[in-house]
Design a protein that fits this description.
Elements lengths: L8 E7 L5 H10 L6 E7 L6 H11 L4 E5 L5 H11 L4 E4 L5 E2 L3 H11 L5 E9 L5 E4 L6 H7 L8 E4 H7 L8 H11 L3 E11 L11 H17 L7 H15 L6 H15 L2
Parallel strand pairs: 1-2, 1-4, 2-3, 6-9
Antiparallel strand pairs: 4-8, 5-9, 6-7, 6-8
Helix pairs in contact: 8-9, 9-10
Length: 275
């Protein structure tokens, strides 16, 4: 592989039974114009054709796609395994149903070349809902106190960081809580941002980001709540109220999309306004 002229960027994607979304994810990385890039896919023994599709891409793009398929304990374990496999000086993580926007890796490489002391950068993220509605999450001036209470500042698929930073703060937790990882990152380095949309994230129901199962949703929100509390978030933060409602919804067997959920969101805003 020719690795001259710029840092090697490694993008890690944990995946388990990722059909049909994984094809678009693979295409979005394989067609990046930046030449020094590798896509590391860590499969947890898929049975739906995912492994065969990834193997086909690895054969078509031998300098760009690498993969492994073996049992793991979850997406956090898979992410850590992918980091160990990666050769890049710059790392990123892209979900199996996420997309890397055209020109994203070029923009990231230019940033790190022009800012040799920077350890972390993130950009905008296009969030697409099930009805096709798209909203652009744009980076705002980073404030740790707000981040620990809301998790709204940083979109993981639009984040890139130097390998040394991961070695310093440690990998994502085994449960795969990327919010907790970002909290550790934000404690030790400056959070830089780019005025560019770097990824597309799916928010449709049934994806990892928006699970259909109320119990699974409650577990995910509990992980965020516990991470927030460990790093300084309060018991009445927006993240806390989101978890309380998700836990109640799971217990009652109802979908957390009612007006009660919106009422809790309003209450969270009121709490925030009076602090």
């Amino acid at each position: 592989m020719n690795r001259t002229g710029g840092p090697l960027v490694s993008i890690v994607t944990p995946v388990l039974n990722g059909m049909p979304d994984i094809r678009a994810c693979l295409d979005s990385v394989a067609t990046q114009t930046y030449p020094h890039i590798e896509h590391i896919l860590v499969d947890g023994c898929s049975t739906d054709g995912t492994v065969e599709l990834i193997a086909d891409y690895a054969a078509r793009y031998p300098d760009r796609v690498r993969f492994t398929s073996e049992p793991d304990s979850g997406c956090g374990d898979a992410w850590a395994k992918g980091v160990r496999m990666a050769h890049g000086q710059i790392l990123g993580c892209l979900g199996a149903d996420d997309l890397c926007e055209p020109g994203a890796v070029d923009a990231v490489a230019v940033f790190f070349r022009e800012h040799p002391d920077a350890m972390f950068v993130h950009g905008g993220c296009r969030q697409v809902w099930g009805d096709g509605t798209a909203v652009i999450h744009r980076p705002t001036p980073f404030d740790y106190r707000t981040f620990v209470r809301t998790a709204r500042h940083i979109a993981t698929p639009s984040s890139y960081y130097r390998r040394e930073l991961v070695e310093h703060v440690g990998p994502v937790e085994e449960c795969g809580n990327d919010f907790e990882f970002m909290l550790r990152v934000a404690r030790v380095c400056q959070v830089h941002s780019l005025d560019a949309t770097l990824s597309t994230l799916s928010r449709r129901v049934g994806t990892a980001f928006n699970p259909l199962d109320p119990v699974r949703r409650a577990v995910s929100f509990r992980d965020d709540y516990e991470a927030s509390r460990r790093h300084g978030g309060g018991r009445l933060s927006p993240i806390a109220l989101r978890y309380y409602w998700a836990a109640l919804s799971a217990r009652l067997g109802i979908q957390p999309t009612s007006r009660i959920a919106r009422g809790l969101s309003a209450a969270a805003r009121a709490v925030r306004a009076h602090r």
